[in-house]
Structure formats: C-alpha cells, structure tokens
Amino acid sequence: MSAEAVIVVFIFYMIFAFFVSYFSAHYMINETGLFESNIVVATMINLLQAVLAIFVWFLYSVGISKSLFFDGLLFSLLLLFVSEVALVVLLYANKEKVNYHLIKLKEIVRILKYR
C-alpha cells in the first residue's frame, strides 16, 4: 500500500474519531446534563483513538523511512490538536441549547408534579 493511500485512510480515521467522540458527548450531555465531565470523556476518547492511529502510523512508516514517520507524526499531532479544539468549541456552542431544553423539561416536570 502506498504512503498516499495510508495518509488518506489515516485522515478518514481521525475524522471518524472526531465524530464518534462528538456524538457520544452530545448524547451524554443531553441525557445527563453534565457538561464538563462529558467533555473530558469525549476528549479522552478522541485522544485514545489518535494515539492508536499514531501507533499504527509508527508501525507502517518506521520500516520505510524516519522522515516519513516524523512528517506523519507532526501531521497527526496537528490533526489531533485541531480535532480537540473543534470538539470543545462545538460542544460548548451546543451547551446553551441543551441548557434551554433542560430548563423547559424541569418546568414541565414541575407543572406535572403539582397536578
């Protein structure tokens, strides 16, 4: 397999890791209402998947050349940083919407409780 194909697979895997962590955190924030702890869990999921991808990149590229490994390592760290920042920013942007729905849900429960 050529290095270009492996890089494309690597990019798709990092995008997949971002979406898995985003949707898991978004679902859990909606279910529990806990924001900070679910952000930490989502960033750890994203970090774990990125470390696994970097390890696979190490296994693939070390036999070819060290410069290919270090270029891929730098690229993967850049992708990791961008995905972590995007994850936190997108979840923080949805925090206001989630808080609004939780307040409405508490009002409905309070109204139904006094009937």
Task: Characterise the protein shown here.
The protein has 3 helices and no strands. With about 120 residues, it is mainly α. It has one domain (about 5-115). Helix 1 runs antiparallel to helix 2 (about 35-60) and helix 1 (about 5-30) packs parallel to helix 3 (about 65-115).
Q: What topology does this entry show?
A:
Blueprint: H1 3-32, H2 36-61, H3 66-113
Helix pairs in contact: 1-2, 1-3, 2-3
Structural class: mainly alpha
Counted beta strands: 0
Low-confidence stretches: none
Per DSSP, the total helix count is 3
Strand content: under 5%
Cα gyration radius (Å): 19 Å
Outline, from the CA principal axes? rod-shaped
- Helix fraction by DSSP (H/I, runs of at least 4): over 70%
- Give the N-terminus to C-terminus distance in angstroms: 67 Å
| Order of H and E elements | HHH
What is the domain total for the residues?
1
On the 0-100 scale, what is the average pLDDT? Answer: 83
Keywords summarizing the entry:
115 residues, mainly alpha, 3 helices, single chain
